[in-house]
TrEMBL record:
This is Glutaminase. Residues 31-222 form the L-asparaginase N-terminal domain. The active site is at residues 40, 120. One of its GO terms (molecular function) is asparaginase activity. Residues 243-353 form the Asparaginase/glutaminase C-terminal domain. The lineage of its organism: Bacteria, Pseudomonadati, Pseudomonadota, Betaproteobacteria, Burkholderiales. Pfam families: Asparaginase, Asparaginase_C. Keywords: Hydrolase. Belongs to the asparaginase 1 family. It comes from the Bacteria.
């Protein structure tokens, strides 16, 4: 073995404690904590051909990590089981518990990055919630899989290795919360689940930030919207989220749902409108009435791409409504809930939709 290949060989020239420490820091692996919440990445099917028929949230985190010896080459990894649920069953309480734990860990000097394993159905929502509420510049990677580990061509193993790699990387610092699926690094704000049966399910309409290939990150863009360190929301100060619900638009839609939600105490209603957030004529009055009772109205679109323009389709200024910009209804709901924890009015909420 040549002298150059001996780790710490440089110490031979300068054996001072400071130099030794610097050399150690250079070769030391990052400490990454994996918070497991369930989902298909922890799922198991009856046979290798069961890629879509299986039970989610079965495999405990220690078993998941033990099955991936590759992780030890990238980082010092330890796991914590926060929940064991399929992500369609996530609640506001789950979001609060998870975000508070992420925030605690991010403050620890012995943690360099955090990975959250999660079901894919609401993964993009949780990732966005974390990016809005956790004040840290440490990388947070949220990851899932489209196939259980028992299936042929299971995608969870590489997705998780890539998540740990990104969470442990210095070059990912300050860039917020990521979703690392299918070799791509997407920013939490933009990414959504767009396909429900293939491994390339997560897409951002504005493109990924980069890719992970063989444990190395290749960055092409950086997020421009406010997140993590620059957010005005802080999970350490939030213990409860207000009721915000979504009303879906379709031909023949009736005001039944809007009226029921107002009666049930909704503080805001996100309208998942057709086209550019358009609203059926028979829905305008019920939404105006809701606004009259103090309920915030957010006009979003059920169309997955593009963005809703203010005062196009409906006179938002006149009705005192807010537009969700390019946020899908389920993500618009999260930002609206957080805005309400600060007592935001429609003007402030609209400002937030432009900024986050
Ligand atoms: N691929 C998945 O993870 C889907 C599953 N239903 C979940 O979100 O937990």
């Amino acid at each position: 073995m040549g002298i150059l290949s001996v780790p710490g060989a440089a110490l031979a020239q300068d054996a001072s404690p400071a130099a030794a420490q610097a050399a150690k820091a250079q070769t030391a692996k990052p400490n990454v904590v994996v918070l497991a919440t369930g989902g298909t990445i922890a799922g198991a099917g009856a046979s290798t051909v069961n890629s879509a028929t299986y039970t989610a949230a079965k495999v405990p985190v220690d078993k998941l990590l033990a099955g991936l010896p590759e992780l030890a080459q990238i980082a010092n990894v330890r796991g914590e089981q926060v929940f064991q649920i399929a992500s369609e069953s996530f609640t506001n309480d789950n979001l609060l518990t998870l975000a508070k734990r992420v925030s605690q860990l991010a403050k620890q000097s012995d943690v360099d990055g955090i990975v959250i394993t999660h079901g894919t159905d609401t993964l993009a929502e949780t990732a966005y919630f974390l990016s809005l509420t956790v004040h840290t510049d440490k990388p947070i990677a949220v990851v899932g899989s489209m196939r259980p580990g028992t299936a042929l061509s299971a995608d969870g193993a590489l997705n998780l290795v890539n998540a740990v790699s990104v969470a442990g990387s210095k070059d990912a610092r300050g860039k917020g919360v990521f979703v690392t699926m299918n070799d791509e690094i997407n920013t939490a704000r933009d990414v959504n689940k767009d396909i429900n049966i293939q491994t390339g399910a997560f897409k951002s309409q504005w493109g990924p930030l980069g890719m992970v290939v063989e444990g190395k990150n290749y960055w092409f863009r950086a997020p421009v919207k406010r997140h993590t360190m620059n957010s005005e929301f802080n999970i350490d100060n939030i213990d409860k989220l207000p009721q915000v619900d979504i009303v879906y638009a379709y031909g023949s839609v009736q005001p039944t749902a809007v009226n029921a939600l107002v009666d049930a105490g909704a503080k805001a209603i996100v309208h998942a409108g057709t086209g550019n957030g358009s609203v059926a004529d028979r829905m305008v009055k019920p939404l105006q009435d809701a606004r009259g009772k103090g309920v915030l109205i957010v006009r979003s679109a059920r169309v997955p791409y593009g963005f809703v323009l203010r005062n196009a389709e409906q006179p938002d200024d006149k009705y005192d409504w807010v537009v969700a910009h390019d946020m899908r209804p389920e993500k618009a709901r999260l930002l609206t809930m957080l805005a309400l924890t600060k007592g935001a009015n429609t003007k402030e909420l609209q400002r937030m939709f432009w900024e986050y």
